[in-house]
Amino acid sequence: MYIVLYVVLAIVGLFILLALIAPKKYKVNRSIIINKPLPEVFQYLKHIKNQDNWSPWKKKDPDMKQEFIGNDGEIGFIVKWDGNKEVGLGEQEITNIIDNDRVEARLRFFKPWKSESDAATSVEDVGNGKTKVTWGFSGVNKVPANIFMMLYNVDKHVGKDFEEGLASLKEILEN
What we know:
Layout: H1 2-21, E1 25-34, H2 38-45, H3 51-54, H4 56-60, E2 65-69, E3 78-82, E4 89-98, E5 102-111, E6 115-127, E7 130-140, H5 145-148, H6 154-174
Antiparallel strand pairs: 1-7, 2-3, 3-4, 4-5, 5-6, 6-7
Protein name: Polyketide cyclase
Transmembrane segments: 6-23
Organism: Flavivirga rizhaonensis
């Protein structure tokens, strides 16, 4: 009887310890230099529908179902998607636009698991008609999900998708 109690207490103690030391937040972003002036790059980026042309997730499921609500390129615009198991089910809503600086959005994923993240695409003039684009997202790892994040490197996994997407964006805008 005492052995079972000790085992249960040890498991509960380990769970609490892991929950305390596991990462509470995550942030992933990547950047690329595009050989186009900032206003031109920003005008393209602020329209979420343009992501269909360069998003790595659209390439993973070109047949995903999408629904658009509101005016693209304006605060409150929402794109909803329902795709294969690589893409899942979710939505993205533009929450803030700072002209020629950044577009902020809220990502809500419903499948394959529920989560919410803050996404941002920002631009910076680096001179000579070139623009640095930074694309990324961040969020909070809630218990017990934060324990599993000790085994899953979000930056490594999603970072390569951001790199692929930014490379496609660069190709589109420079051609």
